[in-house]
Amino acid sequence: EIDELEQILSVAELLEKHGLQKPVSFVKDTKGSAEEARKLMVRLTRHTGRKQPSVSETQWKELLQDMLDMQQKVYRCLHSDTCYEIFTESLLCSSSIDNIHLAGQMMHCSVWSVDLPSSSKGKPQYRVSYARSIELVLAAGREYFNSSTSLTDSCMELARCCLQLIEDSPSAVQEELDLIRALGYLEEFGVKILPLQVRLCSDRLSLIKDCLAQMSTNYKQSAKLLGLANLLRVAGKLYGEKRSSLILLVEQALSFQDYKAASMHCQELMATGYSKSWEVCSQLGQSEGYQDLGMRQELMAFALTHCPPCAIEALLAVSSSLQTQILYQTVNYQFLPSEGGENSSISGVSSGQSADLLYWTTSKTMKVLSNTTLTTKAMLQAVSDGQWWKRSLTYLRPLHGQEFGDVLKSGSGENATVEKQGCHPFYESLIDDPYIAENNSLESFAEVLLRTGKLAETKSEGKDLLPTTEVCTLNVVCLLILSYANKCFEKQLHSALSLQLASYYYSLQIYARLAPCFKDKCHPLYRADPKELIQMVTKHVTQYAQADWPEEITSLINQLHYYNERLLDFTQAQTLQGLGKGVDVQRFTADAQYKRETILGLAETLEENVYKIAISLAQRYSVPLWEVYVTHLEFLFTDSGLSTLEIEQRAQSLGLFETLKTSPETFHEHMAKYVYPSIEGQDHQRLLYYFTLLENCGCSEVVNHAVKPETHIRLLKKFKAVAPGLNYKKLTDENENPLETLEPILTSQNILSISKLAPKIPKKDGSMLSPSSVYAVWLQKLFWNGDHHLIKKIPETMDEWLHAYDMCSKYFDRLDPDDIATFIDEITFSPKAVTKLPVEARIEVTKKAVKAVKHLCEKSRKKTSDNDMKDSENPSAAYEETLNHLQQSLAHLETLTHSFITYLKSSKQDTLQKYGYLYDLSRSQKEKIHEQAVAMCIDGQPLDMVQQLLQVAVGDLGLSPQDIVQCAIKKIVGILSGNDDSSTTEKDPLGILEGIISAVHASVEKGEKIVSSDDLLEWLRPFCGDDSLPVKPRIRVLQILEQAFHLSDEDSQLLVYFRTQAVLRACWPETKVLILMAANYTVLLNDNPWVKLGAFMLQRCPPEEKEKTGNEILKICRSLYETKHMLPVKCIKELCLLLLNQSLLLPSLKLLVESKDQDLHAVALEQITAVAKVDDSSCDAEILSLLLNAKLVVKCMSTAFCPRLIDHLLANQGQGGWDVEEIAQQLKEAGFSAEAGSLLMAHRGTHPALRTFTTALQAAQHWI
Questions:
Q1: Contacts of 71 (CB under 8 A, 6+ apart)
Q2: SS3 1029
Q3: First-residue to last-residue Cα distance in the chain
Q4: Could you tell me if 484 and 403 are in contact, meaning their C-beta atoms sit under 8 angstroms apart?
Q5: What is the pTM of this model?
Q6: For residue 406, what are the contacts with CB-CB under 8 A and spacing of at least 6?
Q7: Average pLDDT over residues 1124-1153
Q8: Residue 1026 φ/ψ, nearest 5 degrees
């Protein structure tokens, strides 16, 4: 407490030192309050800032240190960073440039700045974070800005100084600096306003308006005004947004009729797509003083695009007027291309004349315009019939061969102004058109001329408005004059108007050529009703289709037919579209496949008008009515929602079958593929109608199924009455069992009727059911589930089961002998019987069945003798066979009380219970007993258990435990060989084999003579000796045999031979080597065979394969690890010396190092030390890993292996699990301190430039 009081007292002294006197009690009371501590620090720094004269930098730094001392001693609730922030904030707000710069030293002034080390001299340590620095600077800068009276105020300089401390100028800081710059612009434009007013101005665009209002010519300083708009952020946070300002500039320029400036700004606005500028664009576009008509038209187009709906009408009127002026200007240019020049094709027109085109043109031009107007009016009057447009017409065609462009051709003076590019004048007479085409082609000029004529005619006639089709008609006039219709029509999308005009056009052309009508006046042909003209011309050319027409007329006739067809297609497609069925009209007209699918799709309807349209279209486009009818019938069955009776009535009323029966095979195929799958199996009424249709359409002959439609009809009529819930489709499905389908619906009420139908129901094999089999299925159901009439309660007790059997036995005379056996097996040897019935009940039922069959057999014999039948036809033989079957069952049931079977069933082990259950179901049948015994053997059960199972089974099965074990071995060998596809178990086959061998071994140990080791070896020898099979499983089989049995020397040598042979066949497949090895086998068995084998392999191999042979020897030695044949140290050393003599250093080193013997390690180190230069033949990753595993790093430090060893250690320490720290410790203890330190530095990522000898030694001393 004394120390605490001393610290509080020292804080009070510090406060008094800086002129802020506070009692000790105040310091003591506020030491835990962060808020009071903060207020105290702020008061202290602000008090210092107000001192006069100003405090020096040294005193400020002293104050900072005192603040930190106060924080550390008493005000620990206040973070030191807060002290720095308070101190920096006070410096910024001290109204001193020097203090502001000092504050800059206390802050992070850019996002990339970092804290300087505390030992750095001359500058304090940076403490205030970058984000907090921005906040402090902005607060101080805004305070200075708001308190300024003008741009020249001293506070404005302080604000700028604060903001410029942040070096990378983030957006918030840049916005404040831009606001200061904007004040300068405002002063330049003469706007007097306080800085605070500028900041608080919500509509800063008004400041731009004030600038424009100061002087009429200010709008010309557009760059400066736009710069001011950017600085003021006129559009909020969107820096660079200037479109609102541009609108002001345009308005100002327009007020002074400065169209050039206004146009420049409007183009900029249009380029940005600023929709709000439509109004100023329309103002400039409507300015008559602006002579650039093209630009004005663009402005009006932009205004029309972006204006509100209420302004469209007025703008359209202005745009139309502009377009008229442009057209007049274009035509004037065509006739008078240059002022002062004299066009040779126009006489009597002076260069200065500028009257309207239709009142001043030359006689030739007047002639053309007159002809054009008369022709146009005649056509328009003819086309004004509204009904005509709704049927079928098309474009016009040129009347005659005269070219409209002849008016403009002038002969020798054609290129007098040398404005056209063409060939040499010498060749002009040889070429029709020696000049390159200009943009204003004759076709373009003709279009302009016609549009101009239309506008003039509208102007002169006033309210006499022409039809809306006038534009298309005028285009046809142009085609008639210039003759380029084909290309035009090809490019047009098909529509009612374009197709009708096309037909009209070609009709005119054909008529004009067949009956020329070229006169000065308009011929009556052009006043004729287009419909009548098309019909007349079409009829004429069709009537004389075989006539020898000229080639030109033939082409026109083909075009007429083509467009007539397209028009008919289109009108019918329009009708389809009107139905609302989603028909694509364009595609229907052009795509034949789509057209066919559409017609068939329309046939899938119950609407009479749509169906009639589908029939009409099918007839029109040659879609067979058979397809339409069968599609409609399919729809009725599948998607119409109609009942079967309604379907029948509709099909009858439409008369579908007269057509459908013409192709019975196709009809049957279609119905079977698309209709039959949609019918529910329990819907007997619809199935009956389906097969009735097939029968009525003559499909019986083409049905390949065993059951014909006629039979289906008879069966369905019967089943519909007696078994309404039957799935008839499943019953007659050739892939289903018909008895399983019948079983759910069989009852005592319908069994007789259904049994009579059985001979007509096919089975999977193609044969028919028998009544007996149906009764057998029903009796099984009756026995287990009872019946409402015969057995009203489901049996549960033994007496009830016997009563149920007695009830069923009454029907035995209706069963075939085989079906009796099947029934008895179902109620005595099925899983349900084993679970539900006690053994006593099953035995009693079987006894009764034997008695009943004997009675039936005797009855059959009497009947046979009475009828004097031959033996081959004697049915009693079948009863004898059934009787034997039942006696076998009875004998098997009596074995269920055997102690062994009882033990299995009562066992708590699930596996043993399963064996008892399987035996119960087996009926002592040889196949099932054999299968169960093999399964027990595969499960590794003792052989005496297998033997007991075979002994308990009834009869002489001819099976022995030896047979069972042999079969199990064959199964496992088959799996290992890949020849047995059936997966007998999910266990590992080698594990299963080991279990079998263990069971045999246990049996042999007990003295049982069931299976011997000789038997196993005999069964497994072919597998182990089969070199076509994988090596590993064969070796593993031999190892299992070795571990289980103490084999004789001969057998042991034989196993070694097999093992050696297996390894060599995999590693050395050459036949000669194997023969030699077999020949010298006796030699190999003396001494150590593996050493001899290695020497033999090295001796026999060619020089180029020595390296490969050395690796194979290494593999052989490694395969012997963890076995009885693992090589001793002496043999390994001998083998390594053999390898070294052959210059095979690497495999030799691997054998020596991976052995755990110190003497062999010493030999390896001698060889490593002797290596002067390391390469891939003497060193690889594996030997380096082995050296690290053997902890031989220290002993290799003075060898050439050292660099590679260290690099391998550092690169793979995670995979190898080696401890670098431990290895470095070993190196230091061995006297390799520098090496140990260098290893640690590399491990810890020290830069290579810093890994000097001295630092390595220091690192070893420091880290180890």
A1: 37, 78, 80, 83
A2: coil
A3: 44
A4: no
A5: 0.48
A6: none
A7: 85
A8: -85, 100
